[in-house]
Structure formats: structure tokens, C-alpha cells
Automatic annotation (TrEMBL):
Keyword match Membrane: no
Source taxon at top rank: Bacteria
One of the GO BP terms on file: methylation
InterPro entries to which the protein is assigned, alphabetical: 4pyrrol_Mease, 4pyrrol_Methylase_sf, 4pyrrole_Mease_sub1, 4pyrrole_Mease_sub2, CobA/CysG_C, Siro_Cobalamin_biosynth, Uropor_MeTrfase_CS
Gene3D superfamilies: Cobalt-precorrin-4 Transmethylase, Domain 1 (3.40.1010.10), Methyltransferase, Cobalt-precorrin-4 Transmethylase, Domain 2 (3.30.950.10)
UniProt keyword annotation of Methyltransferase present: yes
GO molecular function: uroporphyrin-III C-methyltransferase activity
Protein name according to UniProt: uroporphyrinogen-III C-methyltransferase
UniProt pathway: Cofactor biosynthesis; adenosylcobalamin biosynthesis; Porphyrin-containing compound metabolism; siroheme biosynthesis; precorrin-2 from uroporphyrinogen III: step 1/1
Keywords: Methyltransferase, Porphyrin biosynthesis, S-adenosyl-L-methionine, Transferase
Enzyme class (EC, first level): transferase
Family according to the record: Belongs to the precorrin methyltransferase family.
Pfam families xrefs: TP_methylase
Amino acid sequence: MSPKEALTVEIPARFLAGSAESGSGRVDLVGAGPGDPGLLTVHAVAALQRAEVVLHDRLIPQEVLDLANPAAERVYVGKARSRHHYRQEELNALMIDRARSGHYVVRLKGGDPFVFGRGGEEAEALAAADIPVGVIPGITAAGGCAAYAGIPLTHRDHAYRCQFVTAHRRSGGTELDWAALVQPQQTVVVYMGLHGLDKVCTEMVDAGAPPAMPAALVEQGTLPEQRVVTGTLGDLPERVAGLEIQSPALLIVGEVVRLREAIAPGGGGPDGGA
């Protein structure tokens, strides 16, 4: 069997549904992964190639958008911190409108749609409107960025569990359970960890984590511009200050961060760079 034959995948029939001619539309929430176009799944590429409408987030690389059907309508619906091009209600209405017009809509989201991507909210809105909706998972930012940084999220000697949390929550939302985040032998991954870095580090120490607990901030993870800053809960904010780190950035806390020195002394990623 040739490599080409080995990689042949039967494309689900749903990618061929949803056209103006058939009169039936649908929406697939598609995970684009953490940034590196090479981390797209085969099904994600198939969906993009057959899309009639692509609604894409802010952090989707141009190389990924270039894979989409050239005839597809493309709408930027990105959200930056405190700056939303579309409010969530408007975005939901847009997806419903395009699907009801008979189109196959790809809602293209960074990472995985169901991991801090509001995919659950969007799927609920579509289902409530009787719009067929599917999910094509993507490699999570946590998994991709940690791997490219040379940091295993779990390890039999250091971490038997891993928690994903976000430093950016709905206005008026409940505070994080800091006591749960400082349990031994676990890794904590904080999405959107840059703007809340000082608070997260301070609160974890106040909750009982040792100030010497290893921590790393991964900027532009999996991309050529990736930068990894390592330190501890006690000194990482100071190490980051003045470096002009930009979002997206992911915070990883736990003993597994120490393993980066052995696993990726020259950096992570497929090319060995950080």
C-alpha cells in the first residue's frame, strides 16, 4: 500500500450536504487547532474545502483560510479581549441565517470548539433553531502548545491529573477554586493566562502552592513566533515583564515544566525551535 493510499479517508456525507440546490443547510463547528496548519485534522480540511460559508475567528492563520473553498463566503467574526467584531447573539443569528438559506456553514474556531471556544453555546443555539449541527474536534491549545514547548501535561512521576481553566470569565462569574488548583501532582493549564498572570500566580501561592512551583508562559504556541518563558509562581510575572509578550499566551503550572530542560533544551516543536 502506498503512502497516498494509506492516507485515503472516506469523507463523511454531511460535508456534501447543505447546498442551496438541496434546500437544506447545516453548520459544523470545526476546530482549527492551536495555530500550526499542519495540526489540522483531515476532516477539518475536508470541511473547509466543501464549505459554502466560512465564519472564522481572529487567530486563524491565513494558511488555514487558504485551504477553504475559493468560492465560499468568508466572514470574520473574531473576538479580541474586550473587542468583539460580532456579539455572540449576532454570530448565532448569522449562522442560523446562512444555514436556513441552504448553505453548508463552517464555523472555524481556534483550538477545539468545545474547550473554551463557546462551541457549546453555539451548538445549543443552532439546535434550538432546528439547524443540523456537528462538531469536528481540533487539537487543543493546551495539548499543542505544551507539546511544542517540550512540556508533557501528565507524567507518572510528576502529574497524574491535569486541569484546564481560563483566566477570562463571563462578567460576574464565580472565582476560580484556587484550593483545587494547588493540589500536588497535577498540572494546571490556564487559557488566556497573560492578562491574569499576576493574579493567578499570587492566588495560587496564597492558596498554598510553593512559590518555587515551576511555571511557563507559552506565547504564539506552535507558530514560528513561539516563545516560551519559564520560571516559578514566585518570579514568572517579573520574568515576563518587559518582554512585550502578546496574546495568545498559555500558562502552564506544575512540576512537569522542569522536564522542558531535558526534553527540549533548544526549544520545542517539530523543528526544535521555540
